[in-house]
DUF2267 domain-containing protein
Amino acid sequence: MTLRWEAFLEEVRERGEYDSPQEAERAARVVLALLGAHLVGDVRAELAARLPETMALILLNPLQAAEPLNTERFVRATAAWIEGATEATAPWDIGAVLSTVADAAGDDLMAQVLLQLPPGYDLLFGRPAARIRP
């Protein structure tokens, strides 16, 4: 099921504790543009289909990445692109957006998304993978 624009932004706004929908939108645009550079094929298309049209287009037309960013570099890139963000605050922005995306995606699609990403992204989505104990 596709989220409506207003519902998506309201979720991001609440989770990020932003003062306005504009702040939530700014964070969502940056995070989704960076995420889209890491996803390919049917997985990216299916995830986009579950997002509001504007956000889907951002995911489908991402910033270009020369190589996959590990989580630390993803945080740094987010901090660099969001005005006023720092490496300390960027995980908050990322979590607000990606946890909303994860809820829209559902468990099965999220499992496929995480397979395309470097290790550690499960935490950015607020979906820590079950750890195997020896």
In short: The helical segments are 5-16, 21-36, 41-49, 53-60, 71-81, 90-105, 107-115, 121-124. The mean pLDDT is 91. The domain at 5-124 is CATH 1.10.490.110 (Globin-like).
